[in-house]
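User: Good morning. I'm curious how pyridoxal-5'-phosphate would be positioned relative to this chain. Could you predict the structure with it bound?
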Amino acid sequence: MTNRREENVWIPESDLDGMTVDTLAVRAGQIRTGQLEHSDPIFPTSSFVYGSAAQAAARFGGEEPGNIYSRFTNPTVQAFEGRIAAMEGGERAVATASGMAAILSTCMALLKSGDHVVCSRGVFGTTNVLFQKYLAKFGVETTFVGLTDMDQWERAVRPETRMLFIETPSNPLCEVADMKALSSLAKANKALFVVDNCFCTPVLQRPLEFGADIVIHSATKYLDGQGRCVGGVVVGPNKLMEEVYGFLRSAGPTMSPFNAWVFLKGLETLPIRMRAHCDNALELALWLDQQDNVEEVFYAGLETHPQHSLAKSQQSGFGGVLSFRVKGGRDEAWRFIDATRMISITANLGDVKTTVTHPATTTHGRLSPEDKDAAGITENLIRISVGIEAVEDLKTDLARGLEALQSSSNGNV
Ligand SMILES: *Cc1c(COP(=O)(O)O)cnc(C)c1O
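Assistant: Good morning! Here's the predicted structure, ligand included:
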């Protein structure tokens, strides 16, 4: 049987059995209509029609699969879900309106009042707020621990702990968690192990292979890769995803078909983009490490990084985000940032365009001084999300920042 000329068919996943993530990024989850288009079609429609009243009844009753309404069934969104599920090696994916909606949907579907969460301290700032302010209102308590400190994880777990939540590598200090160890801890306590895989994408790291139960993405970052759309996705086993999907259907934090289509296009180039991000980031990390006015560089690709070998065992590349401390404090960090000319000053990341930000006053600005200290977010810390421009040009621009520090330190003498 061939799928190639049939109309309105999902191209069967079995044709892609055993293929690599690079191929799945281009091919998985595609649907082809009677027009036999080569690129993925887009279905910008809120609802769908039925051949008869009986068919409508069968669809609504769940006896017949098929499209009903785009809050919970849209072919473009399903194509995106199929592709990312294949890439992560998960049974099913549920797409959401944003990365935060993916985290919220997971928690609302799988936690209840009285449950306890243990979360790594360095997570995305808004994830912190979601757990600490909003889930707490509904009786879900969260304890924050150091990402790489297994003693702290073990001590934080309680009988009512239902979820361990991490990001690895962490933002912005690039700490790397031992996913197998955390997965064992979660299993021993019948808790879910959830990994936000935004920084690595399935091209560099597939947490399900290291024992994660659920993988979460902000599709806004690398999956899109060109800074166009906000979206998210949750990947995991059918049983858990059925619950997440049920929440999405009832609560409605749905991905739009237009955004799903943009993400499908983004995924097609994700493998080659990730390699370019990794190559540039490693070269810049090595280069920054040699500069006089740079105190310390944080990037798991550096051999001096404390979890370098762990990162190597879990990731096929070290990612596109690095951070470093300049000599001095906030003044010096800001002077460095303001002296660059090409690199975008923005807190966004995962874009083909290189971006620079000052975590202490932007992404992590809402943390208390004590929490900033605990997370290592000092005033002289700068984060770069390395894009795919020519690395020599990135060095030229960053050298302007270094020169600004040079002239200021001379001025102080
Ligand atoms: C951006 C981000 C999120 C939130 O995603 P949105 O799409 O902005 O809602 C979650 N986790 C990480 C690691 C992120 O970088």
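The mean pLDDT is 94. The two ends are 79 Å apart (CA to CA).
Let me know if you'd like a different ligand tried.
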